Amino acid sequence: MAAKGESTAISEGVRVTVRAEYVPDQSSPADRRYVFAYTVKIENQGKRPAQLRARHWIITDGNGQVEEVRGAGVVGKQPYLKPGQAFEYTSGCVLTTSRGEMRGTYQMVREDGAAFDAVIAAFGLSLPPSLN
């Protein structure tokens, strides 16, 4: 499992950076509810525009249980990124364990209809060291 709560990957000129953190005020360890927020920045560092059409997340908890989430866009949007543009959003994940990992892909489409997957490198979800 990825230990750090951050990751970066570049696919066909699209850079995906993620930072995750534990959200204690929304969590309830006694009820096995651990909430994590993650902020994603998607940057088009290439020479051609691309639009994010869909997401595919693979979420693994501390017991090795895997959940896959697929859907259109992110936070209700399908951002179109020209070269040099970026889109950032924050979302969340709830686990029944105090640690886990997320990774996945964004399906991107070029103006000519060519599709590719922008990789979301694995990043860890864990409590701060003082809470473990």
Q: How is the secondary structure organized here?
A:
Layout: E1 6-11, E2 14-22, E3 34-44, E4 50-61, E5 66-72, E6 80-81, E7 86-95, E8 99-109, E9 115-126
Antiparallel strand pairs: 1-2, 2-3, 3-7, 4-5, 4-6, 4-8, 8-9
CATH class identity: Mainly Beta
Largest sheet: 5 strands, antiparallel
> What level of helicity do the residues show?
under 10%
User: What is the strand content?
Assistant: over 45%
CATH topology description: Immunoglobulin-like
* pLDDT averaged residue by residue: 94
Total DSSP helices = 0
Shape designation: elongated
Structural class: mainly beta
Tell me the Rg in angstroms.
Answer: 15 Å
Number of strands: 9
How many angstroms separate the termini? 16 Å
As for the number of domains, it is: 1
Gross CATH architecture: Sandwich
Name the CATH homologous superfamily.
ApaG domain
Could you spell the SSE succession in H and E letters? EEEEEEEEE
Give the low-confidence spans: none
